[in-house]
């Protein structure tokens, strides 16, 4: 399920176990197959026999392709160009089971953001900026509870780059211990791209702008929700407010639903909601706001981020009272393609996949 499409080169890179395929999309022929653990690479750290290296990340990086793999339980990353270059170790998931690998790795202007274990034992899974030209920053441990990271996206603002955000989508353990409550809650969080961490005195090398909100998909009038986020696809728009997030959710009653959100709707909650559990006057600047020099953010603002990062308001879908699409099939993957119809209108076509099949799930109206 790990792919990279390089449109300018007409190539698709696909990750498997112990190999990466590079395909020419014009003829759909395999033009190159490389085994990551060929004999000439055996000394890069994988000495067990057999060494299973499940490819978990394929991203475009400058003039090469950035690839990460489980590397026999010792995660490692390379830049794919001749020769292979070891870039960094242990920045993505330690999981070695292809059925459970879920990652949120993102390259933005030379910086790598990754859902990664904080140490080599795989503990404290968190969303970090791990390498690049900007400062490496991490999360505060109390911000999430046993998270499963689904995906992330950088949303550009052509005329306001200092206010650009990185959005992270995940589900985490529900703190509600009621037997009738779902074990999981779906979330969207954001951090500012310019966030360099706090001052040396407080929150150094920690996100100063991390805030999160509940992502709701279901039937609010019946208090019936699908709470397990499975996958997302972000369809970017030149107007960042109109950038759409298509998300798949599953439920306890074996249903799957697709809900649609806009970045404008998500931002509305982050900018206007109160902070859950915080009853004082919200300090200025507002917690979560982007400040070009994050080390100068006042202690009062960072303290709210530290202790009360969750918004009281929920992020509802575009259709609010009902999901965009509901199915009894257990869909786990989604992608969206834009096509022009015979009526010259542009349509968004949703492609949904289960664990074993792939097919058309739904078609939305013309834009």
Automatic annotation (TrEMBL):
Domain spans labelled Sema: 1-367
GO molecular function: chemorepellent activity; integrin binding; semaphorin receptor binding
Pfam annotation, one family: Sema
Keywords noted in UniProt: Glycoprotein
GO terms of biological process kind: axon guidance; integrin-mediated signaling pathway; neural crest cell migration; positive regulation of cell migration; regulation of inflammatory response; semaphorin-plexin signaling pathway
InterPro entries tied to this protein: Semap_dom (IPR001627), Semap_dom_sf (IPR036352), Semaphorin (IPR027231), WD40/YVTN_repeat-like_dom_sf (IPR015943)
GO CC terms of this entry: external side of plasma membrane
PANTHER family reported for this sequence: SEMAPHORIN, SEMAPHORIN-7A
Name this protein carries in UniProt: Sema domain-containing protein
Species of the source: Periophthalmus magnuspinnatus
């Amino acid at each position: 399920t790990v792919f990279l499409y390089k449109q300018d080169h007409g190539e698709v890179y696909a990750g498997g176990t112990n190999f990466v395929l590079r395909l020419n999309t014009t003829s759909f022929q395999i033009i190159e197959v490389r085994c990551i653990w060929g004999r000439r690479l055996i000394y890069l750290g994988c000495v067990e026999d057999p060494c299973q290296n499940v490819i978990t990340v394929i991203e475009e990086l400058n003039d090469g392709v950035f690839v990460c793999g489980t590397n026999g339980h010792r995660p490692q990353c390379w830049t794919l160009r001749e020769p292979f270059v070891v870039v960094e170790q242990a920045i993505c998931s330690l999981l070695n089971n292809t059925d459970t690998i879920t990652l949120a790795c993102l390259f933005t202007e030379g910086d790598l953001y990754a859902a990664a274990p904080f140490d080599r034992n795989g503990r404290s899974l968190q969303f970090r900026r791990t390498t690049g030209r900007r400062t490496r920053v991490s999360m505060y441990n109390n911000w999430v509870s046993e998270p499963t990271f689904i995906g992330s996206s950088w949303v550009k603002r052509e005329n306001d780059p200092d206010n650009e955000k990185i959005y992270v989508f995940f589900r985490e353990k529900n703190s509600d211990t009621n037997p009738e409550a779902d074990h999981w809650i779906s979330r969207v969080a954001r951090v500012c791209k310019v966030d360099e961490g706090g001052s040396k005195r407080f929150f150094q090398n920690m996100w100063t702008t991390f805030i999160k909100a509940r992502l709701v998909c279901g039937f609010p009038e019946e208090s019936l929700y699908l709470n397990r986020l499975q996958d997302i696809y972000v369809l970017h728009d030149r107007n960042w407010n109109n950038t759409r997030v298509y998300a798949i959710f599953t439920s306890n009653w074996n249903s799957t639903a697709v809900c649609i959100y806009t970045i404008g709707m998500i931002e509305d909650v982050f900018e206007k909601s109160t902070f859950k559990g915080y009853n004082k006057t919200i300090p200025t600047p507002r917690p979560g706001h982007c400040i070009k020099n994050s080390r100068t953010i006042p202690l009062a603002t960072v303290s709210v981020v530290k202790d009360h990062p969750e918004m009281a308001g929920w992020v509802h879908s575009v259709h609010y009272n009902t999901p965009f699409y509901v199915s009894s099939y257990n869909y786990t993957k989604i992608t969206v393609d834009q096509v022009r119809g015979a009526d010259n209108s542009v349509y968004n076509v949703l492609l949904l996949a289960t664990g074993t099949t792939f097919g058309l799930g739904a078609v939305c109206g013309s834009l």
